[in-house]
Design brief:
6-stranded parallel sheet, binds NADP nicotinamide-adenine-dinucleotide phosphate, about 425 residues, 6-stranded mixed sheet, globular, alpha/beta
Amino acid sequence: MRHIAIIGSGPSGYYAAEAAGKKWGDDARIDVFDKLPVPYGLIRTGVAPDHQSIKAVARRYEKTALTENVRFVGNVTVGSDVTVPELQDLYDAVVFATGAPHDRQLGVEGEDLGNIFGSAAFVGWYNGHPDFAALDPDFSGKHAVAIGMGNVALDVARILSKTEGEMAGSDIVEHALSALRGSKLETVTILGRRGPHQIMMTPKELGELMHLERASPMVDPEDLPPVDDDLILEPGLRKSVTLLRDFAAIPASIHGETPIGIEFDFFANPVSFEGKDGKVSAVEVEKTVIEKGRALGTGETYRVPADLVITCIGYRSSSIEGVPFDERQGKFANDDGRILPGLYCVGWAKRGPTGTIGTNRPDGYGVIDLVAEDIGQGNRKRGREGFDELAAARGLDIVTFRDWQKIEEAEAAAAREGAPREKFVDIADMIAARG
Ligand code: NAP
Protein backbone atom coordinates (compact mmCIF):
# COMPACT_ATOMS: atom_id res chain seq x y z
CA MET A 1 0.00 0.00 0.00
CA ARG A 2 1.21 3.52 -0.84
CA HIS A 3 0.07 6.48 1.24
CA ILE A 4 0.13 9.82 -0.54
CA ALA A 5 -0.59 13.25 0.96
CA ILE A 6 -1.36 16.01 -1.53
CA ILE A 7 -1.40 19.51 -0.06
CA GLY A 8 -3.79 21.71 -2.01
CA SER A 9 -7.04 20.78 -3.77
CA GLY A 10 -6.77 22.96 -6.87
CA PRO A 11 -6.17 21.68 -10.41
CA SER A 12 -2.59 20.46 -9.86
CA GLY A 13 -3.60 18.67 -6.64
CA TYR A 14 -6.56 16.87 -8.18
CA TYR A 15 -4.70 15.94 -11.38
CA ALA A 16 -1.97 14.41 -9.19
CA ALA A 17 -4.65 12.55 -7.19
CA GLU A 18 -6.23 11.35 -10.46
CA ALA A 19 -2.83 10.14 -11.70
CA ALA A 20 -2.12 8.28 -8.43
CA GLY A 21 -5.56 6.66 -8.53
CA LYS A 22 -5.01 5.53 -12.13
CA LYS A 23 -1.49 4.22 -11.47
CA TRP A 24 -2.14 2.23 -8.33
CA GLY A 25 -5.90 1.69 -8.10
CA ASP A 26 -6.70 0.13 -4.77
CA ASP A 27 -3.02 -0.14 -3.83
CA ALA A 28 -2.87 3.52 -2.82
CA ARG A 29 -4.65 5.84 -0.41
CA ILE A 30 -4.56 9.48 -1.36
CA ASP A 31 -5.46 12.28 1.06
CA VAL A 32 -5.98 15.73 -0.50
CA PHE A 33 -5.56 18.43 2.15
CA ASP A 34 -6.79 22.02 1.97
CA LYS A 35 -6.61 24.78 4.53
CA LEU A 36 -10.06 25.97 3.41
CA PRO A 37 -13.16 23.88 4.14
CA VAL A 38 -13.92 23.99 0.38
CA PRO A 39 -12.01 22.39 -2.50
CA TYR A 40 -10.71 23.37 -5.95
CA GLY A 41 -8.32 26.23 -5.18
CA LEU A 42 -8.03 28.67 -8.09
CA ILE A 43 -10.99 27.11 -9.90
CA ARG A 44 -13.14 28.52 -7.12
CA THR A 45 -11.23 31.66 -6.19
CA GLY A 46 -9.04 32.51 -9.21
CA VAL A 47 -10.88 31.74 -12.45
CA ALA A 48 -13.06 34.73 -13.34
CA PRO A 49 -16.65 34.41 -12.10
CA ASP A 50 -17.98 35.09 -15.62
CA HIS A 51 -15.95 32.16 -17.02
CA GLN A 52 -18.28 29.41 -15.79
CA SER A 53 -17.37 27.06 -18.64
CA ILE A 54 -13.76 27.04 -17.37
CA LYS A 55 -14.93 26.49 -13.80
CA ALA A 56 -16.87 23.43 -15.00
CA VAL A 57 -13.59 21.46 -14.98
CA ALA A 58 -14.29 21.05 -11.24
CA ARG A 59 -16.70 18.24 -12.22
CA ARG A 60 -13.69 16.21 -13.32
CA TYR A 61 -12.00 16.78 -9.96
CA GLU A 62 -15.21 15.82 -8.21
CA LYS A 63 -15.12 12.48 -10.00
CA THR A 64 -11.62 11.91 -8.64
CA ALA A 65 -12.63 13.10 -5.18
CA LEU A 66 -15.48 10.58 -5.09
CA THR A 67 -13.33 7.54 -5.88
CA GLU A 68 -12.81 5.09 -3.03
CA ASN A 69 -9.08 5.63 -2.59
CA VAL A 70 -9.12 9.45 -2.63
CA ARG A 71 -10.41 11.60 0.20
CA PHE A 72 -10.65 15.36 0.82
CA VAL A 73 -9.31 16.62 4.15
CA GLY A 74 -10.50 20.21 4.36
CA ASN A 75 -9.96 22.86 7.02
CA VAL A 76 -6.45 21.59 7.86
CA THR A 77 -3.46 23.91 7.53
CA VAL A 78 -0.20 22.11 6.87
CA GLY A 79 2.55 23.91 8.74
CA SER A 80 0.39 24.74 11.77
CA ASP A 81 -2.36 22.11 12.34
CA VAL A 82 0.07 19.42 11.25
CA THR A 83 3.74 19.80 10.36
CA VAL A 84 5.50 18.57 7.25
CA PRO A 85 7.73 16.14 9.23
CA GLU A 86 4.58 14.68 10.83
CA LEU A 87 3.08 14.10 7.40
CA GLN A 88 6.36 12.58 6.19
CA ASP A 89 6.22 10.12 9.08
CA LEU A 90 2.70 9.07 8.10
CA TYR A 91 2.78 9.13 4.28
CA ASP A 92 5.19 7.69 1.71
CA ALA A 93 5.01 10.90 -0.33
CA VAL A 94 3.99 14.48 0.44
CA VAL A 95 3.17 16.52 -2.66
CA PHE A 96 2.81 20.31 -2.45
CA ALA A 97 0.09 21.52 -4.82
CA THR A 98 -0.21 24.80 -2.98
CA GLY A 99 -0.11 27.10 -6.01
CA ALA A 100 1.21 30.64 -5.76
CA PRO A 101 -1.20 32.55 -3.53
CA HIS A 102 0.85 35.71 -2.84
CA ASP A 103 1.14 38.78 -5.03
CA ARG A 104 4.51 39.73 -6.42
CA GLN A 105 5.46 43.26 -5.45
CA LEU A 106 6.44 45.98 -7.91
CA GLY A 107 8.84 47.37 -5.34
CA VAL A 108 8.26 51.03 -6.24
CA GLU A 109 7.60 54.06 -4.08
CA GLY A 110 4.00 54.57 -2.96
CA GLU A 111 2.98 50.93 -3.38
CA ASP A 112 1.48 50.91 0.12
CA LEU A 113 -0.99 53.74 -0.66
CA GLY A 114 -4.70 52.98 -0.26
CA ASN A 115 -6.75 51.49 -3.12
CA ILE A 116 -3.73 49.71 -4.63
CA PHE A 117 -4.22 45.95 -4.60
CA GLY A 118 -2.41 42.93 -5.95
CA SER A 119 -4.43 40.75 -8.28
CA ALA A 120 -4.40 37.76 -5.87
CA ALA A 121 -6.18 39.97 -3.33
CA PHE A 122 -8.50 41.73 -5.79
CA VAL A 123 -9.48 38.59 -7.72
CA GLY A 124 -9.87 36.78 -4.38
CA TRP A 125 -12.17 39.58 -3.23
CA TYR A 126 -14.61 39.37 -6.15
CA ASN A 127 -14.39 35.56 -6.09
CA GLY A 128 -15.23 35.25 -2.38
CA HIS A 129 -11.89 34.06 -0.96
CA PRO A 130 -12.27 34.38 2.84
CA ASP A 131 -8.79 35.96 3.17
CA PHE A 132 -9.83 38.93 1.02
CA ALA A 133 -13.51 39.42 1.88
CA ALA A 134 -12.68 42.57 3.85
CA LEU A 135 -10.66 44.25 1.06
CA ASP A 136 -13.17 47.06 0.44
CA PRO A 137 -11.92 48.61 -2.83
CA ASP A 138 -13.23 52.08 -3.61
CA PHE A 139 -14.85 52.55 -7.03
CA SER A 140 -15.86 56.18 -6.57
CA GLY A 141 -13.03 57.51 -8.77
CA LYS A 142 -12.99 57.74 -12.56
CA HIS A 143 -9.74 55.96 -13.35
CA ALA A 144 -8.61 52.42 -12.73
CA VAL A 145 -5.23 51.03 -13.79
CA ALA A 146 -4.36 47.36 -14.21
CA ILE A 147 -0.59 46.85 -14.34
CA GLY A 148 0.63 43.91 -16.46
CA MET A 149 -0.34 42.56 -19.85
CA GLY A 150 -1.39 39.00 -19.02
CA ASN A 151 -4.75 37.27 -18.81
CA VAL A 152 -5.22 38.32 -15.20
CA ALA A 153 -5.11 42.01 -16.21
CA LEU A 154 -7.77 41.18 -18.83
CA ASP A 155 -9.95 39.42 -16.24
CA VAL A 156 -9.70 42.44 -13.96
CA ALA A 157 -10.43 44.96 -16.74
CA ARG A 158 -13.45 42.93 -17.87
CA ILE A 159 -14.91 42.53 -14.37
CA LEU A 160 -14.48 46.27 -13.77
CA SER A 161 -16.29 47.00 -17.03
CA LYS A 162 -19.17 44.56 -17.22
CA THR A 163 -22.72 45.59 -16.41
CA GLU A 164 -24.72 43.81 -13.75
CA GLY A 165 -26.73 42.20 -16.56
CA GLU A 166 -23.55 40.84 -18.13
CA MET A 167 -22.61 39.31 -14.78
CA ALA A 168 -26.00 37.60 -14.39
CA GLY A 169 -24.88 33.99 -14.98
CA SER A 170 -21.64 34.43 -13.04
CA ASP A 171 -20.85 33.50 -9.45
CA ILE A 172 -19.36 36.87 -8.51
CA VAL A 173 -20.06 37.27 -4.80
CA GLU A 174 -22.72 39.65 -3.60
CA HIS A 175 -20.33 42.04 -1.78
CA ALA A 176 -18.43 42.59 -5.05
CA LEU A 177 -21.53 42.93 -7.19
CA SER A 178 -22.99 45.53 -4.89
CA ALA A 179 -19.71 47.51 -4.65
CA LEU A 180 -19.33 47.48 -8.45
CA ARG A 181 -22.94 48.59 -8.85
CA GLY A 182 -21.89 51.99 -7.51
CA SER A 183 -18.77 52.22 -9.71
CA LYS A 184 -18.01 55.59 -11.29
CA LEU A 185 -15.14 54.28 -13.43
CA GLU A 186 -14.73 55.81 -16.89
CA THR A 187 -11.34 54.43 -17.88
CA VAL A 188 -9.51 51.21 -17.20
CA THR A 189 -5.91 51.55 -18.35
CA ILE A 190 -3.97 48.34 -18.94
CA LEU A 191 -0.35 49.29 -18.44
CA GLY A 192 2.54 47.27 -19.89
CA ARG A 193 6.25 47.90 -19.66
CA ARG A 194 6.79 46.26 -23.05
CA GLY A 195 5.00 46.42 -26.42
CA PRO A 196 2.23 44.73 -28.41
CA HIS A 197 4.56 41.89 -29.48
CA GLN A 198 5.36 41.06 -25.87
CA ILE A 199 1.86 40.70 -24.43
CA MET A 200 1.00 37.53 -22.51
CA MET A 201 -2.73 37.76 -23.33
CA THR A 202 -4.41 34.90 -25.21
CA PRO A 203 -6.76 35.59 -28.16
CA LYS A 204 -9.97 34.21 -26.68
CA GLU A 205 -9.63 36.35 -23.54
CA LEU A 206 -8.51 39.44 -25.48
CA GLY A 207 -11.36 39.04 -27.99
CA GLU A 208 -13.93 39.25 -25.18
CA LEU A 209 -13.17 42.97 -24.85
CA MET A 210 -14.81 43.50 -28.25
CA HIS A 211 -18.18 42.38 -26.96
CA LEU A 212 -18.70 44.39 -23.80
CA GLU A 213 -21.93 46.34 -23.47
CA ARG A 214 -20.60 49.51 -21.91
CA ALA A 215 -16.85 49.42 -22.61
CA SER A 216 -14.63 49.40 -25.68
CA PRO A 217 -10.91 48.65 -26.02
CA MET A 218 -8.59 51.42 -27.25
CA VAL A 219 -5.14 50.97 -28.77
CA ASP A 220 -3.06 53.81 -30.19
CA PRO A 221 -2.14 52.80 -33.79
CA GLU A 222 1.23 54.53 -33.25
CA ASP A 223 2.14 51.81 -30.72
CA LEU A 224 1.77 49.00 -33.26
CA PRO A 225 4.79 47.72 -35.20
CA PRO A 226 4.53 47.39 -39.01
CA VAL A 227 2.02 44.65 -39.82
CA ASP A 228 4.62 42.49 -41.63
CA ASP A 229 6.53 42.16 -38.37
CA ASP A 230 3.67 39.99 -37.05
CA LEU A 231 4.70 37.19 -39.42
CA ILE A 232 7.51 36.07 -37.13
CA LEU A 233 5.15 35.62 -34.16
CA GLU A 234 3.89 32.23 -33.06
CA PRO A 235 0.26 31.75 -34.18
CA GLY A 236 -1.44 32.41 -30.80
CA LEU A 237 0.43 35.64 -30.19
CA ARG A 238 -0.11 36.68 -33.82
CA LYS A 239 -3.87 36.30 -33.29
CA SER A 240 -3.67 38.41 -30.14
CA VAL A 241 -1.72 41.14 -31.94
CA THR A 242 -4.26 41.05 -34.78
CA LEU A 243 -6.93 41.75 -32.17
CA LEU A 244 -4.91 44.74 -30.91
CA ARG A 245 -4.90 45.97 -34.53
CA ASP A 246 -8.69 45.53 -34.61
CA PHE A 247 -8.95 47.56 -31.40
CA ALA A 248 -6.82 50.32 -32.94
CA ALA A 249 -9.22 50.45 -35.90
CA ILE A 250 -12.35 51.00 -33.77
CA PRO A 251 -13.72 54.42 -34.78
CA ALA A 252 -13.94 57.20 -32.23
CA SER A 253 -17.73 57.27 -32.69
CA ILE A 254 -17.97 53.78 -31.10
CA HIS A 255 -15.87 54.89 -28.14
CA GLY A 256 -18.24 57.81 -27.79
CA GLU A 257 -21.13 55.38 -27.35
CA THR A 258 -19.57 53.41 -24.50
CA PRO A 259 -19.08 55.05 -21.12
CA ILE A 260 -15.92 53.08 -20.24
CA GLY A 261 -12.71 53.06 -22.28
CA ILE A 262 -10.27 50.17 -21.79
CA GLU A 263 -7.03 51.85 -22.80
CA PHE A 264 -3.87 49.91 -23.64
CA ASP A 265 -0.79 51.83 -22.58
CA PHE A 266 2.35 50.15 -23.95
CA PHE A 267 6.04 50.89 -23.33
CA ALA A 268 5.11 52.24 -19.89
CA ASN A 269 7.08 51.04 -16.86
CA PRO A 270 5.56 52.04 -13.49
CA VAL A 271 8.20 53.83 -11.39
CA SER A 272 6.14 55.23 -8.50
CA PHE A 273 2.64 55.94 -7.23
CA GLU A 274 1.36 59.34 -6.18
CA GLY A 275 -1.33 59.74 -3.58
CA LYS A 276 -3.77 62.13 -2.01
CA ASP A 277 -5.14 61.73 1.52
CA GLY A 278 -3.50 58.30 1.75
CA LYS A 279 -5.08 57.00 -1.44
CA VAL A 280 -3.50 56.51 -4.83
CA SER A 281 -4.15 59.27 -7.37
CA ALA A 282 -1.69 58.53 -10.20
CA VAL A 283 0.96 56.15 -11.49
CA GLU A 284 4.17 57.70 -12.70
CA VAL A 285 5.55 55.70 -15.61
CA GLU A 286 8.78 55.82 -17.55
CA LYS A 287 8.57 55.39 -21.29
CA THR A 288 10.54 52.40 -22.53
CA VAL A 289 12.05 51.11 -25.74
CA ILE A 290 12.43 47.41 -26.43
CA GLU A 291 15.87 46.03 -27.10
CA LYS A 292 16.36 42.28 -27.58
CA GLY A 293 12.93 41.80 -26.02
CA ARG A 294 13.77 43.77 -22.87
CA ALA A 295 12.22 47.06 -21.76
CA LEU A 296 14.81 49.79 -21.35
CA GLY A 297 13.94 53.07 -19.67
CA THR A 298 14.27 56.24 -21.74
CA GLY A 299 14.26 58.67 -18.83
CA GLU A 300 11.05 60.28 -20.12
CA THR A 301 8.21 60.02 -17.60
CA TYR A 302 4.51 60.86 -17.52
CA ARG A 303 1.55 60.45 -15.14
CA VAL A 304 -1.42 58.17 -15.62
CA PRO A 305 -4.40 59.18 -13.45
CA ALA A 306 -5.32 56.31 -11.11
CA ASP A 307 -7.97 56.22 -8.39
CA LEU A 308 -7.72 52.44 -8.16
CA VAL A 309 -4.74 50.24 -9.09
CA ILE A 310 -4.56 46.47 -9.45
CA THR A 311 -1.09 45.05 -10.03
CA CYS A 312 -1.40 41.93 -12.20
CA ILE A 313 2.28 41.04 -12.40
CA GLY A 314 2.41 37.45 -11.17
CA TYR A 315 2.47 35.48 -7.95
CA ARG A 316 4.72 33.74 -5.43
CA SER A 317 4.24 30.45 -3.60
CA SER A 318 4.14 30.17 0.20
CA SER A 319 7.28 28.77 1.74
CA ILE A 320 6.93 26.20 4.51
CA GLU A 321 9.48 25.90 7.30
CA GLY A 322 12.02 23.21 6.64
CA VAL A 323 11.14 22.76 2.94
CA PRO A 324 13.78 24.06 0.46
CA PHE A 325 12.46 27.21 -1.23
CA ASP A 326 13.80 29.26 -4.13
CA GLU A 327 13.32 32.82 -2.82
CA ARG A 328 14.33 34.46 -6.08
CA GLN A 329 11.76 32.60 -8.16
CA GLY A 330 9.15 32.41 -5.39
CA LYS A 331 8.55 28.65 -5.63
CA PHE A 332 9.79 25.42 -4.05
CA ALA A 333 13.37 24.52 -4.95
CA ASN A 334 12.84 21.40 -7.04
CA ASP A 335 14.16 19.21 -9.82
CA ASP A 336 11.20 18.87 -12.19
CA GLY A 337 8.83 18.29 -9.24
CA ARG A 338 11.12 16.46 -6.81
CA ILE A 339 12.14 18.57 -3.81
CA LEU A 340 13.72 15.58 -2.03
CA PRO A 341 12.82 11.90 -2.25
CA GLY A 342 9.47 11.69 -0.46
CA LEU A 343 8.76 15.43 -0.88
CA TYR A 344 7.42 16.83 -4.17
CA CYS A 345 5.70 19.81 -5.72
CA VAL A 346 3.40 20.21 -8.69
CA GLY A 347 1.64 22.99 -10.62
CA TRP A 348 2.47 26.60 -9.82
CA ALA A 349 4.27 25.52 -6.61
CA LYS A 350 6.69 23.66 -8.92
CA ARG A 351 7.03 25.82 -12.01
CA GLY A 352 5.75 29.26 -11.02
CA PRO A 353 2.56 30.99 -12.15
CA THR A 354 2.43 30.10 -15.84
CA GLY A 355 0.28 28.08 -18.21
CA THR A 356 -3.38 27.19 -18.35
CA ILE A 357 -5.39 24.86 -16.11
CA GLY A 358 -4.68 22.05 -18.60
CA THR A 359 -0.90 22.48 -18.11
CA ASN A 360 -1.40 21.01 -14.65
CA ARG A 361 -2.57 17.68 -16.00
CA PRO A 362 0.79 16.47 -17.40
CA ASP A 363 2.40 18.05 -14.34
CA GLY A 364 0.17 15.96 -12.05
CA TYR A 365 0.89 12.75 -13.96
CA GLY A 366 4.62 13.58 -14.08
CA VAL A 367 4.94 14.05 -10.34
CA ILE A 368 3.25 10.72 -9.64
CA ASP A 369 5.80 9.02 -11.95
CA LEU A 370 8.54 10.52 -9.76
CA VAL A 371 6.77 9.34 -6.61
CA ALA A 372 6.51 5.84 -8.11
CA GLU A 373 10.26 5.79 -8.85
CA ASP A 374 11.07 6.78 -5.28
CA ILE A 375 8.64 4.81 -3.11
CA GLY A 376 8.27 1.47 -4.87
CA GLN A 377 5.63 -0.58 -3.06
CA GLY A 378 5.45 1.86 -0.15
CA ASN A 379 7.18 1.81 3.21
CA ARG A 380 4.51 0.45 5.54
CA LYS A 381 3.49 3.91 6.70
CA ARG A 382 0.28 4.43 8.64
CA GLY A 383 -1.28 6.93 6.22
CA ARG A 384 -4.76 8.25 6.88
CA GLU A 385 -5.33 6.02 9.91
CA GLY A 386 -2.36 7.63 11.63
CA PHE A 387 -3.44 11.08 10.50
CA ASP A 388 -6.95 10.56 11.87
CA GLU A 389 -5.50 9.64 15.27
CA LEU A 390 -3.32 12.74 15.26
CA ALA A 391 -6.26 14.93 14.16
CA ALA A 392 -8.50 13.52 16.89
CA ALA A 393 -5.83 14.07 19.54
CA ARG A 394 -5.45 17.67 18.38
CA GLY A 395 -9.17 18.31 18.06
CA LEU A 396 -8.90 19.27 14.37
CA ASP A 397 -12.28 19.87 12.76
CA ILE A 398 -11.86 18.10 9.42
CA VAL A 399 -14.26 18.94 6.61
CA THR A 400 -14.90 15.89 4.39
CA PHE A 401 -15.98 15.81 0.77
CA ARG A 402 -19.48 14.84 1.91
CA ASP A 403 -19.48 17.96 4.11
CA TRP A 404 -18.36 20.01 1.09
CA GLN A 405 -21.28 18.64 -0.92
CA LYS A 406 -23.64 20.00 1.75
CA ILE A 407 -21.87 23.36 1.66
CA GLU A 408 -22.17 23.30 -2.14
CA GLU A 409 -25.90 22.56 -1.92
CA ALA A 410 -26.37 25.47 0.48
CA GLU A 411 -24.43 27.79 -1.86
CA ALA A 412 -26.58 26.71 -4.82
CA ALA A 413 -29.74 27.27 -2.78
CA ALA A 414 -28.61 30.81 -1.88
CA ALA A 415 -27.79 31.78 -5.52
CA ARG A 416 -29.40 34.87 -7.03
CA GLU A 417 -31.65 34.31 -10.04
CA GLY A 418 -29.62 32.86 -12.94
CA ALA A 419 -26.41 32.40 -10.93
CA PRO A 420 -24.94 28.97 -10.12
CA ARG A 421 -24.16 29.74 -6.47
CA GLU A 422 -23.69 32.40 -3.83
CA LYS A 423 -20.42 31.51 -2.14
CA PHE A 424 -19.91 31.67 1.60
CA VAL A 425 -17.05 34.07 2.19
CA ASP A 426 -16.64 33.34 5.87
CA ILE A 427 -14.99 30.12 7.04
CA ALA A 428 -17.34 29.78 10.04
CA ASP A 429 -20.35 30.06 7.70
CA MET A 430 -18.90 27.38 5.41
CA ILE A 431 -18.42 25.04 8.35
CA ALA A 432 -21.88 25.79 9.75
CA ALA A 433 -23.44 24.99 6.34
CA ARG A 434 -22.42 21.33 6.52
CA GLY A 435 -25.12 20.94 9.20
P1 NAP B 1 1.50 36.70 -16.90
O1 NAP B 1 0.78 36.11 -18.04
O2 NAP B 1 2.86 36.20 -16.59
O3 NAP B 1 1.57 38.29 -17.12
C1 NAP B 1 2.22 39.10 -16.20
C2 NAP B 1 2.40 40.48 -16.77
O4 NAP B 1 2.95 41.30 -15.75
C3 NAP B 1 3.35 40.56 -17.96
O5 NAP B 1 2.82 41.44 -18.91
C4 NAP B 1 4.62 41.12 -17.34
O6 NAP B 1 5.39 41.90 -18.21
C5 NAP B 1 4.05 42.02 -16.27
N1 NAP B 1 5.03 42.31 -15.23
C6 NAP B 1 5.69 41.41 -14.45
N2 NAP B 1 6.51 42.07 -13.60
C7 NAP B 1 6.36 43.38 -13.87
C8 NAP B 1 6.95 44.56 -13.35
N3 NAP B 1 7.84 44.50 -12.36
N4 NAP B 1 6.57 45.75 -13.87
C9 NAP B 1 5.67 45.82 -14.86
N5 NAP B 1 5.08 44.75 -15.40
C10 NAP B 1 5.43 43.54 -14.91
O7 NAP B 1 0.71 36.52 -15.52
P2 NAP B 1 -0.84 36.60 -15.13
O8 NAP B 1 -1.61 37.51 -15.99
O9 NAP B 1 -0.80 36.80 -13.66
O10 NAP B 1 -1.34 35.12 -15.42
C11 NAP B 1 -0.80 33.99 -14.72
C12 NAP B 1 -1.10 32.73 -15.50
O11 NAP B 1 -2.49 32.42 -15.39
C13 NAP B 1 -0.80 32.86 -16.97
O12 NAP B 1 -0.29 31.64 -17.45
C14 NAP B 1 -2.17 33.13 -17.56
O13 NAP B 1 -2.31 32.78 -18.92
C15 NAP B 1 -3.05 32.27 -16.68
N6 NAP B 1 -4.44 32.78 -16.72
C16 NAP B 1 -5.24 32.28 -17.69
C17 NAP B 1 -6.54 32.75 -17.81
C18 NAP B 1 -7.42 32.21 -18.89
O14 NAP B 1 -6.99 31.34 -19.65
N7 NAP B 1 -8.64 32.68 -19.04
C19 NAP B 1 -7.01 33.74 -16.95
C20 NAP B 1 -6.16 34.24 -15.97
C21 NAP B 1 -4.86 33.74 -15.87
P3 NAP B 1 6.73 41.33 -18.86
O15 NAP B 1 6.26 40.33 -19.86
O16 NAP B 1 7.39 42.52 -19.42
O17 NAP B 1 7.50 40.67 -17.73
